[in-house]
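Collaboration report, partner site 2.

Our partner group contributed sequences for two proteins of shared interest, and the home lab folded both. The records are reproduced in the order in which they were received, starting with the first partner submission.
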Amino acid sequence: MDTNGQHQRYVVGLMSGTSVDGIDAAVVQISGSAGATKPSAKLIAFENTAFPAQVRELIFELFDPSKATVDKIGRMNMWLGELYAKAALAVIAKAGLKPEDIAVIGSHGQTIYHAPETNKVDGFNLHYTVQIGEGAVIAARTGIPCVSDFRVADMAVGGQGAPLVPFTEYLLFREEDRTLLLQNIGGIGNITVIPAGGSPEDVYAFDTGPGNMLIDGVVSRLNNGKLTLDIGGAIAAQGKVNAELLEVLKQEDYYAQPLPKSTGRERFGSAYIDKLISYQQEHGLAEADLVATVTMLTAWSIGDAYRRFVQQKSPAQAMIVGGGGSYNPVLIGYLKQELEPMGVEVLTQEDIGESSDAKEAVAFALLADYAFAKQPNNLPRVTGAERPVVMGKLSY
């Protein structure tokens, strides 16, 4: 119990995103009754564990359906379960705690395919999503109950299974007097709109398009894998945005698709990178210019999403940026160019005393806390689901 007589517990959140840069693990102290509308969540410890090179290479292979055979998926599902369990135990030790101090673990898993669009077959909507990293292995190795495979429960009631983090963003960040935009820039960019003084039904969110995915993909391809990201925007800073290519990229039909919507590597993955590299070679574009252009595309797509879907009905005062993209000053600079003329101040999680790295791991700790208490943890307006549901499968 805490000093206010409310139930207090420690929960671990695990996240590995579309960038496949490693496992984010957070120990979170949650106060308030389980399923409370305004819980308190305090980050106690955070650790990022890079994937072994072999594992990262094999995960990328699974993104290609022609290579993702059942045996490979099954093996990696168990392998990632082992790695997630190690990451959980490591961050628990870093927090100065023991496994028995932890109430539950929430693991997002590694998405290898996400197909949220309606797909009618024999009268059924067979849309689907695949996240691997076996929760039963995590529970067995740690001795802690584990909630995993969150997205499918939302999809079972007609939702897109994404985005999920807006549920926790509403709980933790809402304000009475300011409309806030919570922008995550991981592999994919996604935005959450939290109207001033709004209810959960007022929140809406969607994927804005590519986040770091194209930047990382281009950098990796240009450097034969020796670099996997543009550290600190150093490459983009040396280049100039190519207006002609940027205009071509803006024509991608995803940007104009109506809400709700979500996207992923299926649209902005290796085939898209192939086209970018081909364009660069055919037009003699400098490598730094290509990196600068796709960096600007990410910023533009976020600005375009705000102008197209948000500005008229929910004019915002501030955008708070999290995820790996928040550490790219060139990207943040481009984003400020896009949004600040519209009266939206651009801040990072660090600017408000939070952690960009830990944000999604904290979110999955909270989502697991709700699931463990059998409380609904989706936002139907955000995902397109027919009703609230309890997301996540529980392993003991």
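Second partner submission, folded after the first:
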Amino acid sequence: MRRYSRKIQVGKIAIGGDSPISVQSMVKTKTADIDATVVQILQLEQAGCDIVRIAVPDRLAFQALSLIKNQINIPLVADIHFDYHLAIMAIEAGVDKIRINPGNIGDPDKIKQVLIKAKNNNIPIRIGINAGSLEKHLLKKYGHPCAEAMVESAMQHIRICENFSFDNLIVSLKSSDVNITINACRLISKKIDYPLHLGVTEAGIENIGLIKSAIGIGTLLREGIGDTIRVSLTADPVNEVKAGINILRALNLKNNNITITSCPTCGRSETDLVNIVKEVERQVAHLKKPLKIAIMGCNVNGPGEAREADIGIVFGHKKAVLFKNGKAIKTIPETKIVGELLSELD
């Protein structure tokens, strides 16, 4: 059962309520480098990214916002810290959401100006709490970053917004520690009905970060917690998007793409299954069909998996049996497998 949350509109994408769980990423380019930033965003769009975030640390970055916005197709989020002027200007430039923690602005009048501008333009704000940047008084109270401190920080920022009658909010609580992230999101999910943005922050290089993100994000989604996700990797952001989509697919929360099931291979396999699977994956990457393909290396688990897929291949010696809708329909020479499989997909 998915946790109830109110629906918040970010450009053309809805977050929360009964909306599909969206996948986000953040560009790694300098925002002031407009051409490089646009190229990376378009690559993210191609990979299936729903919402993209860019850093706005200074006025040079702000000046690029509208030029970037006019060349992309997905909602644009401005990531801002401390400077309320940048938040106001980003809204005026036409961004679809801003990420800023109101309490970090300081002066109540400055906070009020940002919230009024966001409210008048129907722009949501994401309150993003990171374990690495908790307020000093909370670190003193709890002794170290922990789930309880993160929740208290989030509630403080939420109350600031609500005191100014602003509730167009999305909330995230992230730590590089998977357990802290999970516990913080569990706690906050019982206190608020705002949509939750999930992620394990500073997850690390790709091979480590993928595991941490899959465990953290996947655990929460499996419990019905979470409305939008971002996988954070020290890697190409396109791989963040692919990882996010694969997490949703693994939980049957996203079914508009082809899913490939394949065996890990062992001494029974008599074909180069790894490269065959890679080739099939490459050939079907652009297809938007909710189909399952099984590519199996031998007849131990192969026939069972192939029957459960829309299209299945079970390899033997120099040939393979092709299954379709649960039935074996033909035997094919190994050299023709990929072509035959793609033909059946068409």
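Feedback sent to the partner group on the second submission included the following. The chain has two domains: 8-250, 259-345. The first strand starts at residue 8 and ends at 10.
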